[in-house]
Design goal:
This protein is an alpha/beta fold. About 40% of the residues lie in helices and about 15% in strands. The protein is globular and about 70 Å long.
Length: about 425
């Protein structure tokens, strides 16, 4: 058996030793939110999918999980010798030399690039589910297996791993039950660690490599190469899109549109192509985790905006406008929370924005069981309650929090039935479950 397939998974801390804040080191190695998701899902299913952006830490987490097993096999589709072994012997992992009688874990990394990956995994599951555990990672949309009638339906559970967020780094998350009971709860930060982590995220994004290196030039090189790899590599090879130069141009236009209503007709006009082409390109960018989009919430909102969407980036540190970058950071914190809650089976939770035809808008609305749960507005430094926030809070009858980037204290204005909080983002967000 190729040595590349059998790995000993140590804590993998060499590349992380130079990070200053101790709680950041622990969070980056252990990724406690996602380890808990794996443990819960693996107790129910022999095959678990871990999906998420490239370089968000899936391989590191997968190896860390495998390190808890006495018998383990790691397969990487991007390694030529590994691909050859699979073609020569599709069930190569059955011949692994075992340390004891416990079930082995098989990690399939980036297996979705295999042209018939779903059929292959179906065969592996049907043949070996009783004696093996499977962890499948991929940066493409592994949710494809959920389509009705698909060969993998019912054979796996899926969770998502996202770039680092303040809630994960801070280690002060509330229980979901407590958050739902009091979403305006306050988190104190006496040592300033959350503030430092927030500043670091703003400069280098939440992707582990640039975040840990912590250098502006390193981040810019990483970001350039990362986007090129996804667009000129994964998207070109796996979608059949040929106008890759235009897709790159489209993606380069998106940072200045973060937080605004996205007009596909305007983009089509700027790129001199069709509406449907832009729509398909945006879907590809979303599929490969370069962007995520939010839909408007319309129930109980008079004259609500209904069709337009807002767009955000997973790699937000390159957004030049500070207000838009701040809003994007808050968006990803909330997006991660909603995704994790749904992956745990606590949902359905949703994330939307609210806007009416008079252009009054609130950045975010968390929903639970298709009912409004919490309004969230992102402001750079405004300590006065936003008029639109008060208006939509009254219409939707839910608590509201106005997050400010430069604030130092919590304020509870007298309006809004005491269900309104103005809070520094770096102190309130670490509480997100």
């Amino acid at each position: 058996m190729s040595l590349s397939l059998v790995v000993y998974c140590s804590p993998l801390k060499n590349s992380l030793d130079y990070i200053a804040a101790p709680f950041i080191i622990v969070a980056m190695i252990e990724r406690p939110i996602y380890t808990a998701l794996w443990q819960e899902l693996a107790a129910e299913k022999a095959m678990v999918f871990m999906a998420g952006p490239r370089q968000a830490g899936k391989t590191t987490l997968a190896k860390s999980i495998a390190g808890e097993f006495a018998n383990r096999v790691y397969f990487n589709w991007d390694v030529v010798t590994d691909r050859r072994m699979l073609r020569e012997d599709p069930y190569f992992f059955e011949s692994v030399e075992r340390v004891d009688d416990s079930p082995p874990i098989v990690v399939f990394d980036e297996i979705h690039k295999h042209r018939r990956w779903k059929n292959y995994l179906k065969g592996a599951y049907d043949r070996c589910a009783e004696g093996f555990r499977f962890l499948v990672t991929g940066s493409g949309r592994l949710e494809a297996g959920r389509r009705a009638g698909d060969s993998l339906a019912g054979r796996y559970a899926l969770f998502h791993l996202w770039p680092l967020t303040l809630a994960e780094l801070g280690g002060r998350r509330a229980r979901l039950e407590d958050f739902l009971a009091d979403p305006l709860g306050i988190v104190q930060d006496g040592d300033g660690s959350a503030r430092e982590a927030w500043r670091r995220l703003a400069r280098f994004s939440g992707f582990p490599e640039p975040y840990s290196v912590g250098k502006e030039r390193s981040y810019r090189r990483w970001s350039r190469d990362y986007h090129a790899q996804l667009i000129r590599g994964d998207i070109r090879d796996l979608t059949g899109i040929t106008a890759i130069d235009d897709v790159e141009t489209l993606f380069a236009m998106l940072p200045e549109r973060v937080g605004s209503l996205l007009s596909i007709p305007n983009l089509a006009s700027d790129l001199e192509t069709s509406y449907n082409t832009i729509k398909n390109w945006l879907a590809a960018l979303e599929r490969f985790y370069l962007i995520f989009r939010l839909q408007p919430w319309t129930a109980k909102v008079a004259r609500a905006t209904r069709k337009a969407r807002k767009i955000y980036l997973f790699d937000y540190a390159g957004i030049e406008n500070p207000g838009a970058r701040f809003e994007n950071m808050v968006a990803l914190e909330l997006f991660r929370a909603v995704s994790s809650w749904n992956d745990f089976g606590h949902g359905p939770f949703g994330l939307h924005f609210v806007r009416d035809r008079e252009k009054r808008e609130i950045d975010f609305l968390l929903t639970h069981r298709r009912k409004p749960l919490l309004l969230v507005e992102a402001k750079s430094a405004e300590m006065q309650a936003d008029a639109s926030l008060l208006r939509f809070q009254q219409q939707l009858e839910v608590p509201a929090v106005q997050l400010v980037e430069d604030g130092e204290r919590f304020v509870r204005p007298g309006g809004g039935g005491q269900q309104l909080l103005i809070a520094p983002a770096q102190l309130w967000l670490p509480r997100l479950p």
